[in-house]
Amino acid sequence: MIVHLKENISSDKAQELAKENAAILLQYQGKQVLVNSSSIKELSISLQDYAEEFFVFPNDMQLSSKEYLPQKREVQIGKQIIGGKQKNTLMMAGPCSVESEEQIRETAALLKELDINVLRAGSFKPRTSPYSFQGMGLEGLKLLDKMREEFGFSIITEVRDSTHIDDVIAFADIVQVGAKSMYDHGILRKCGKINKPVLLKRGFGTTLQEFVQAAEFILSGGNADVILCERGIRTFETKTRFSLDLSGVAYLKEFTNLPIVLDPSHAMGYAYGVPDLARACVAMGVEGVLIEVHPNPKQAKSDASQQLNHKEFKSLYSDLHKVAQSIGHKII
């Protein structure tokens, strides 16, 4: 249940009511808001004189629900806005990992040439094997910061665990919570307290409700700028890395108020299939696409098989503008 308190309720009284009802107290759009379990279907006696309005839900997807906020939430990234009534599809591109200044600068120059404003790259890599490249760490973050200063990008980079979350928050414009960290409540709660957009990736064995409820941890912490990212789930299929759940995306569009980004690179796992999948992603009318591009994918230290080279990416990017235009959207 979500309860909007009347305007004349003091903050002390609001805190008292939150404690009495075991609820979370939030400030949202100038309102004092109490959020409690969806199992509660009736307004308690203690709230009846203080509630302006209340909302009942079938499950704990509450703050993210269109039953609560019918319109898509707006999220500002740099000078650009996604969500709301905007028909913008934000392009976020760059290598899987920061590997050197030369490598990240070469791709940064490409993005600048194409007028792309969000650079993605990982500095802390949550790898499956302990013997794989684990990222450049803080040094990588500093290189991303340098690219931002030189080219004017917004930076999206991933937090792997709680040991470096403060560094990532300090350097990133958009904090990415990866599929392997989606259940890390320490990360989710920390992201709920920051004033930056958070891109939350769906775990590859995660149901849609589990995914959205992970987003609720961030929303209920007070951060309204949450973006959902579908990046493929694990199925019986072995010929692709994962299976991009576009059916799930249709569900998220219909029932949630959060902007949606799709990641065809991680879903496909192989560069040859990324362009076709990316075109399908844009045709879904989502708020963003995340694509991996590298100056020389064969030499990449992580996810070499799925990264596009610069020529392939330029060709795809031209096509995506046409796809977006066909559905009344604009690639930004």
List the helices and strands and how they pair.
Elements: E1 2-5, H1 11-20, E2 24-28, E3 31-35, E4 51-55, E5 75-77, E6 80-82, E7 88-94, H2 101-113, E8 118-120, H3 138-151, E9 154-159, H4 165-171, E10 174-177, H5 185-191, E11 198-201, H6 208-219, E12 226-230, H7 246-255, E13 260-262, H8 264-268, H9 274-283, E14 288-292, H10 310-326, E15 330-331
Parallel strand pairs: 7-8, 7-14, 7-15, 8-9, 9-10, 10-11, 11-12, 12-13, 13-14
Antiparallel strand pairs: 1-3, 1-4, 2-3, 5-6
Helix pairs in contact: 2-3, 5-6, 9-10
> How do the helices and strands follow one another from N- to C-terminus?
EHEEEEEEHEHEHEHEHEHEHHEHE
Overall strand count = 15
Radius of gyration: 20 Å
Overall pLDDT confidence: 95
Overall geometry comes to: globular
Strand content: 15-25%
Assigned CATH superfamily of the largest domain: Aldolase class I
Assigned CATH class of the largest domain: Alpha Beta
Question: What's the tally of helices?
Answer: 10
Name the poorly predicted regions: none
Question: What is the CATH architecture annotation of the largest domain?
Answer: Alpha-Beta Barrel
Output the CATH topology of the largest domain: TIM Barrel
Structural class per helix/strand content? alpha/beta
What order do the strands of the largest sheet run in, or round the barrel if closed? 7-8-9-10-11-12-13-14
Helix-residue proportion:
25-40%
Q: What is the count of structural domains?
A: 2
Intertermini distance = 37 Å
